Amino acid sequence: MDRFDSGRSLSPIRQAEAYWTALLTGDGVPMRSQIDPRGLENILEYTFVLERIAPGLTRFRLAGSHLNKLAGMEVRGMPLTAFFEASARDRVKEVTEQVFSQPAIANLGLNSAGRMGRVQLHARMILLPLRSDLGDVSRILGVMVSDGAIGPTPRRFALSEDTLRPLTEVQVAQSQPQSLETGFAEDQGRFERPRAHLRLVVSRDE
Fold first, then answer.
1. CB-count exposure of residue 192 (10 Å: 0-12, 13-18, 19+)
2. Of the candidates 6, 48, 116, 175, which lies 20 to 30 Å from 155 by C-alpha distance?
3. Which DSSP state fits 171?
4. What is this structure's pTM?
5. Cα separation, 139 vs 165, whole angstroms
6. Looking at the predicted structure, is the pLDDT value of residue 191 above 60?
């Protein structure tokens, strides 16, 4: 994972965590409706939102264009585990359940093995818990960024590392959060495209 040490490839992950942390209040986990795409404008292509639909099972409700490129298809409605090798899927399910239940922040190191016609690919992922409009922790704001040529798709990953930080250990940001007058509710379909090369798929069903 040395290529991520420069911070350039990790920048979207750091931006997402800083944005999420700025939304923390005494009530704990931020609401899904608080997420404003303008606050994530520079990293929309790497950003996604997951929904918990059953124990251990989460699916993509929103996904940036970078994830679609890695999968070679639109990922809206697909399970998170579709990005992982079979050997990693049980652990990924365990991690996402901890994100919801503790709640906690998860940081994942990912590796896609090189094969005929494509090179080895490293990636990082962060999973940040969110509350739904009903108040339950059943959504995740995430970012996935890879470093290197994607090559033939779909790319599936093994877990090289995973860490969990309970919410109680997260230091609340001291700076004021960005204006949240305009929400990011899924039924509004307002995930904007600030740049022409970004492509974001929006689910309009709740």
1. middle
2. 6
3. P
4. 0.80
5. 17
6. no
